[in-house]
Amino acid sequence: QVQLVESGGGLVQPGGSLRLSCVVSGRLFNLYQIGWDRQTPGKQRELVASHNRDGNTIYADSVQGRFTISRDNGMNTVYLQMTNLKPEDTAVYYCKAVNYGGSIDWGQGTQVTVSS
């Protein structure tokens, strides 16, 4: 099990940028994948971006080319750089960690609001 603490959310105008951070602690040796999901009221949580120890990175089509996921070498901290933000990016963003056994841990979420 790992613990995840997100930060960096807030209010931004359309076209603006934000960087989310997630500090990961706990059983990092068993951590396979780390990434970001988001959720809006009444909708299912959806993948935004993820990175695994095999070196593979995945982005949702809706954020490809605008968002970038990165991490430090030890996967202790993962970032989501968001640029050219759109109102439809408004959501609660959750840091997610998946271990080799398939178990998932979530952070508490951070609100991102894109509005003029």
Written account of the structure:
It is a single chain. With about 120 residues, this protein is mainly β. About 0% of the residues lie in helices and about 55% in strands. It is built from no helices and 11 strands. Strands 2, 4, 5, 6, 9, 10 and 11 form a 7-stranded mixed sheet that branches. The protein is globular. The model has no long low-confidence stretch (mean pLDDT about 95).
Strand percentage lies at: over 45%
**Strand tally:** 11
Tally the helices.
0
List the secondary-structure elements in sequence, H or E.
EEEEEEEEEEE
**Spans of 5+ residues with little confidence (pLDDT < 50)?**
none
Mean pLDDT: 94
Task: Describe the main β-sheet briefly.
Answer: 7 strands, mixed
The CA-CA distance between the termini, in Å, is 39 Å
Roughly how many Å is the radius of gyration?
A: 13 Å
Principal-axis shape equals globular
Q: Kindly state the percentage of residues in helix.
A: under 10%
Structural class: mainly beta
How is the secondary structure organized here?
Elements: E1 2-7, E2 10-12, E3 18-26, E4 31-39, E5 46-52, E6 57-59, E7 67-71, E8 77-82, E9 91-99, E10 104-106, E11 110-114
Parallel strand pairs: 2-11
Antiparallel strand pairs: 1-3, 3-8, 4-5, 4-9, 5-6, 7-8, 9-10, 9-11
Quick structural summary:
This protein has strands at residues 2-7, 10-12, 18-26, 31-39, 46-52, 57-59, 67-71, 77-82, 91-99, 104-106, 110-114. The protein is mainly beta.
